[in-house]
Amino acid sequence: MSSRAPAVGDPTPGLSNASAAVAIAAGLKRHGVEVTFGQSLPSAIQLANPLFGIRQIGYRTENAGGVMADGYARISRKVAVVTAQNGPAATLLVPPLAEAFKSSVPVVAIVQEVNRDTYDKNAFQEIDHFALFSGCAKWVRRVDRTSRTDDYVDMAFTAAATGRPGPAVLLCPADYLNEAVETVERRQAELGWYPLDRVSPDPAQIARAADLLAGAKAPLVFAGGGVHLSGATEALAALQERACLPVATTNMGKGSVDERHPLSLGVAANAMGRHGSTRHMLPMIEEADVVLLIGTRTNQNGTDSWRLYPRNATFIHIDIDGQEIGRNYEALRLVGDARLAIEALTAALEARDMGRRRATRSAVEARIAAGKAAFAEDAAALLHSDRAPIRPERVMREIDGLMTPETIVVADASYSSLWVTNYLVARRAGQRFLTPRGLAGLGWGLPMALGAKVAAPEAPVICVSGDGGFGHCWAELETARRMKLPIVLIVLNNGVLGYQKDAETVKFSGYTDACHFETVDHAAIARDCGCHGVRVERPEELRPALEAALSRDVLTLIDVVTDPEARPPITWYEGHF
């Protein structure tokens, strides 16, 4: 086969010459797409993609495939593409697209539909896809005219990547995909990156924000996931250093700053109870008089049910989505791209008298250092515990000891996310800790880690999942083997849906029968799928197992038997356990 990518009018083996499927594949190539996540259908597109050098990552289930695309987009900073068949396959895309929608992650979903002449005739697996995707996508359209193929592909990528990123769904009737494309002028735009359109806030608003921060007695920054989405971590690090501003992050904002920096508090969200890493920072938060929010939706978990942020503070809010500003906290509005806003704000502050910021820096640093030292003392017994079943805090300590600044850590939902955000330390501004916190669906850790590995094949990828979450996605172990994606998967095996059991106990003084599982040998499942599996029952076995796993060229599952009574320092558990 020639190395030249075929033009739309070229004959294509196995497909109609100049078909719409070939035109779509050409459009994907133009937008920088290198991989798609999909099973067979739409077969016409999957067969055309290799002609343009586009690799297919074949998932086992659509819900996992959608999460793989999400993880890929977060790490690659490119618009991800997932494909699915009509009907039941399409319905399985709803949960991952909803996560991407809430987390502002750009994904284009290409969904096959029934033939056009069978619309509304109860064709096999026909369903109203517009209604199906209306609540979990920014944009849902059907392309059924070959002359408009390029137009709709470009609209889908634009919708996904411009403004607040999110999912776009392009519906393609099966017969349309094999129809000949009319001769049309080819588009040239490359739209597969995000943010697609960077816009700056009003300079007058930047000036007001700079005045507030320069004159504040106790300013504080909260960085959310939007900092990562904007690629603004270097800009935030510069603002932190030059303006002498202390920075905390939300769960999804973890890694926005180097957490070893003397002005970094760590993650301050919904897990600031006993043994929480930022518990001793609460007085600093309560005393803040000017709070700068960057790229955060101020959601329930990120604000500890809207109780964390100081009530009497003046708020400044940077966000690409103007509707998020003022939703929960009235604020000075800086609507625009986070990176451009931070850079403008840094320049404005440097033009002002920063004497107060510099004069208080050493005292602020000392206070943060004291808070971190108090946490280390509080949590020492758990982090160094030699008990069996193993404490999850000890597992995190061993992971943290082997992490590098390039390590990507992925956590499943529920307790796994909170173990990671509390007990692992970001070693550079921009280090990625992926957590499905948009909707926090169980079972998304493993496929998200696989997507991250596709995006960054040279980076170590470590996934932490509970046994409850892992039970949702066992089948994707085979995907990891088949697609040669060597990650380290740590299953915290405690035989219980921990969050469910503990939350029910707090609310109802009892819990349902669904909370407990029978014993499962997850390592054996991994081995039966052709991966490596090892069971760890003693703390001293952790480090050797992790070191060996990081050196292998195949997925390694470490099945860690953990304490079922262990729980993260969730604030609202205070006084109950």
TrEMBL record:
Pfam families: TPP_enzyme_C, TPP_enzyme_M, TPP_enzyme_N. One of its GO terms (cellular component) is acetolactate synthase complex. GO terms for molecular function: acetolactate synthase activity; flavin adenine dinucleotide binding; magnesium ion binding; thiamine pyrophosphate binding. It comes from the Bacteria. SUPFAM superfamilies: DHS-like NAD/FAD-binding domain, Thiamin diphosphate-binding fold (THDP-binding). Belongs to the TPP enzyme family. This is Acetolactate synthase catalytic subunit. It comes from Methylobacterium tarhaniae.
